[in-house]
Write a structure and sequence with these properties.
Layout: H1 2-33, E1 38-45, E2 48-57, H2 61-68, H3 71-77, E3 81-89, E4 93-100, E5 109-118, E6 122-130, E7 132-144, E8 147-158, H4 164-185, H5 192-200
Antiparallel strand pairs: 1-2, 2-8, 3-4, 4-5, 5-6, 6-7, 7-8
């Protein structure tokens, strides 16, 4: 009898743990479908920071991809971008130099990163040289019936200390604004109203607006 009670108790515990996970997944999906840029993880580690965010883009993965890999459009969605130069591009691998100045409170960053690309599926980024201590991240694209789910992760650590409030701002506000801007530039907002909002969050100038799908 005790063994039976233990098994039943264990099953109830497993169910209780699984039920919140299902509810959280459903809530996440609802928020994505409503047009929200959802933060699933943010951390601050000393002078650096990391984050993971997701956004649903109502457009094919190729449309999102072409925005992200474009140096020209990077001036629109990357805050403080001053220089973007493709040093090498073999299709599956690219070397890109960027110069970024987001505030007079922090130094101008000049760095080269490697971009490993599996077309329309994944991009992995890692720092090669420059005045950053660390820069690595990934873009993952998963096409669904509603569009393309974009999963973005980034870890960045400056070589010199930066004010903590700027680190928090770059993760908590900068990343969602960038992803919303990319969605708007890809024509994947899903409505004219949300497209205006998305493009309004672009940190750089928007030369022309796409048509909402």
């Amino acid at each position: 009898m005790k063994a039976t009670i233990w098994v039943v108790g264990l099953a109830a515990t497993v169910f209780a743990q699984a039920a919140p996970d299902v509810a959280q997944e459903a809530s996440l999906q609802e928020r994505l479908e409503a047009g929200e840029v959802v933060s699933t993880e943010t951390n601050r580690d000393g002078a650096g920071a990391s984050g993971r965010m997701q956004v649903l883009v109502r457009a094919p993965a190729r449309a999102v991809w072409e925005v992200i890999v474009s140096c020209e459009l990077a001036f629109t969605f990357v805050d403080g971008l001053q220089t973007c130069e493709v040093l090498e591009d073999t299709g599956g691998r690219a070397l890109v130099r960027q110069v970024v100045n987001q505030s007079w409170l922090i130094p101008t960053y000049d760095y080269v990163f490697e971009s490993l690309r599996r077309h329309y599926e994944r991009i992995d980024v890692r720092l090669l040289e420059g005045n950053l201590k660390a820069l690595d991240g990934s873009w993952i694209f998963r096409e669904t019936a509603d569009g393309t789910l974009v999963d973005y992760q980034i870890h960045i650590e400056p070589s010199l200390p930066a004010p903590r409030f700027l680190v928090r701002r770059n993760i908590n506000k900068g990343m969602p604004d960038m992803l919303a801007c990319i969605r708007g530039l890809a024509g994947g907002s899903g409505s004219a109203a949300l497209e205006r909002q998305d493009l309004g969050r672009c940190p750089g100038p928007v030369s022309s607006a796409p048509t909402a799908q």
